Each structure stands twice: as C-alpha cells, then as structure tokens.
C-alpha cells in the first residue's frame, strides 16, 4: 500500500515559517529602583517571520518574589524556567524561608552553562529578597552571571544600549522606573522586527508583585521617520 | 533567509465596482532591523495605472526606473496612453529577460483601462508569469496572511469607500502577523475621474 507523507520540515514548497523553530526574538529589560525592581518585555513570538503569538508573556514567575525575563528559544527558556521553579520550590520547603534571588540565578546558571552547547537562552533573573533587597542577575547565552542595576536583553536590546546608558539613574522612584522601562522597550519595538505587541511590566518589591500591560496604542510616541 | 524576505514588505490590490484599489506597507528593513518607515512600494505609472513592487528593495527601485523608461518610450512612439494589460505584458517581458538571474520582485498591477474604464488587477512571480484574476491579488512576505484576509473580506462590486475599508483591513491585519511587514501603510483608490491616496495609521511594531 502506498502512503504519501509530507515532511513539514524539509518540504521546500511549504512556507519557511512552518519549519522554523519558535524563538522569542525579543526585547526584555530589568531596572532597579528605590525599594524594588521593574521588569518588562514585549509580547511577540515568531517562527521565521510569522508572528506565532502576539500576546506572549515572557515574564515568568519563579517564586512569589523572583521573576525571570526570557529571550532566545521559547522551548529552551520555558523548559529551563520550569526546572528552576521545581528546584526552588523544593529548596524553599527545606530552607523554611523565601529563596534568595542569587540562589535562583545560580540554578539558572548551572543549567545554562552546563548545557550551553544545546541551549539558546538569554535570561534576566530579577526579584527581591530580605538579604540584599532588589537584585537583577543577567545570564546571557553561554551561561555567565552578572549582577547589574539595569539590564537589557533580546534581539531588540541592541537598538537601545545608548538610550539606557544615557537615561538610567540609580535610586529612581517606582513611577520613574516604570516609565523608563516602557520608553526603552517602545524604542526597541519600533526598530526590531522580532519585537512587538504589547509591553508587559512587573514591579517586584518587599510587598510582592504587581503586573500590568500597556497596549500598543497606549505606548509613548517617538519620532517615526 | 530567502532573498525575497531580506527587506520585507507587502502589497495587495483589489477590484471594485468601476474602481480598483492598491495598498502597500511602508517598511524598509534589513532583516529584523527597521531602517525606514517611509518606503512605499507602489508607484504611479499612468493617470489610472499603479504598480506595486515588493521584494528586494534595490530591485524595487531599479525595476521602477526601467519600467518608467520603457513606458515613456512607448508613449512617445505610440502617442497614446498605455493600457493596463499591455503594461502587464511589458513588465512580464522585462522580468523574463532576466530568467536566469532575476529581479527579486513579485509585482502587483492595478489600474482602470483608459479607454473603457474596466478595472484590472494582475500579479506575477519574479520571472514574469502573469496571473489576472477577477477579484484580488497579493504579494510580499505576508502573502499567505493576505490570501486569508482577502478571501474572507472581499466581495464583488464594492463601492470605492467600501473597497477602501476592505483593502485596508486586509493589509493591516495580515501585516500585523508578519514580523517584517507593516510600520505604516498607503492605500490608493483609483476611480475614473479621481485618485484618492490615504496614509493609514498602523501599529509601528
């Protein structure tokens, strides 16, 4: 009996996006302010040039007061975040206290460094703990860890390094920091084809987390050529 | 990445009742980076004849220039306006001349015949194979999305203002699902005695 099979992965007559891996070509950011940290991300997931999801949530909860911003391969970062959440859940029970942000960063690092040849993941770990307050740990591709007061990541970040360097100030208020993150991500979205949709924000403080969304038409207006 | 997807872009054209419409996005990018938001890919070739040239941006410019050259010579020699079907044949010839080293353009033509005012749309592949349907034509990096939108929204005998709504929604919603199209749009409604050019406000992401 003859059966015909279409191999969606190698058939050249099919559009390229049907075989392209899901990636979060992305703009992500985290910024310390006086009393906490603001995290932000766009909401676009692409397979090739096709926008597979235009309302993605790239700000993923690890614990009540530790979040991560995901960029790179969607599958890899989701899998890593799930594993880290599992480990920290267990650790929290043994410890009897909320886990430290540096612990979360260390577990992310173990995975991202030891499996560096198989993974494509750029992650920002951000949160608040009793020992060191607000912290951001940047874990780019390859698996190094670097604590920073402000950090950007994803394909869209290339366009806003100058803007961030020129406009970041330590010890901003919560509202200033939210505006700074929103403005930066808007500029990145404007230039990067792989970023877009809405801007999702999170504010992590001693009191907990507040999430918000800024829809496309409510984003700040910049020069659009 | 495909060469036709290096710069990105989208064009669509539709027939209406005694009118045609053609629309383009305005993005010019280099792979994922957006360089300009003022690069429309539709050009006016005659009083009621427009051509859209999505694809590799350098070829958009070159094919437009070469097309204008050939059309000017035709109109000087023949001393009359070129008809859309003839323009289509000329563009097809221009592209096939480069059969084994083609221009990376998949053009879209929209116009009203200057003598009998019949609406005309046409699209071609990059080596000049023409397609002259009765409804709409699409081209660009979100052509699959455009086919879906047009198939769902188009109906025959749309009046000019209805056609404007239909073609705008088709282009905007298709481009919103494409990472390398969009960043502004221009729509032209072509009627017997007037052309309306509207710049549509779109998402800039």
TrEMBL record, chain A:
Its main location: nucleus. One of its GO terms (molecular function) is threonine-type endopeptidase activity. GO terms for biological process: proteolysis involved in protein catabolic process. It comes from the Eukaryota. InterPro entries: Ntn_hydrolases_N, Pept_T1A_subB, Proteasome_sua/b, Proteasome_suB-type. Its EC number is 3.4.25.1. It is found in: Nucleus. The active site is at 26 (nucleophile). It catalyses: Cleavage of peptide bonds with very broad specificity. It is an enzyme of class 3 (hydrolase). The 26S proteasome consists of a 20S proteasome core and two 19S regulatory subunits. The 20S proteasome core is composed of 28 subunits that are arranged in four stacked rings, resulting in a barrel-shaped structure. The two end rings are each formed by seven alpha subunits, and the two central rings are each formed by seven beta subunits. The catalytic chamber with the active sites is on the inside of the barrel. This is proteasome endopeptidase complex. The lineage of its organism: Eukaryota, Metazoa, Ecdysozoa, Arthropoda, Hexapoda. The gene is LOC114248565.
TrEMBL record, chain B:
The keyword Lyase does not apply. One of its GO terms (biological process) is proteasome-mediated ubiquitin-dependent protein catabolic process. CDD domains: proteasome_beta_type_3 (cd03759). The keyword Nucleus applies. It is found in: Cytoplasm; Nucleus. InterPro entries: Ntn_hydrolases_N, Proteasome_beta_3, Proteasome_bsu_CS, Proteasome_sua/b, Proteasome_suB-type. One of its GO terms (cellular component) is cytoplasm. Keywords: Cytoplasm, Nucleus, Proteasome. Its main location: cytoplasm. Gene3D superfamilies: Glutamine Phosphoribosylpyrophosphate, subunit 1, domain 1 (3.60.20.10). Belongs to the peptidase T1B family. Component of the proteasome, a multicatalytic proteinase complex which is characterized by its ability to cleave peptides with Arg, Phe, Tyr, Leu, and Glu adjacent to the leaving group at neutral or slightly basic pH. The proteasome has an ATP-dependent proteolytic activity. The 26S proteasome consists of a 20S proteasome core and two 19S regulatory subunits. The 20S proteasome core is composed of 28 subunits that are arranged in four stacked rings, resulting in a barrel-shaped structure. The two end rings are each formed by seven alpha subunits, and the two central rings are each formed by seven beta subunits. The catalytic chamber with the active sites is on the inside of the barrel. Component of the proteasome complex. This is Proteasome subunit beta.
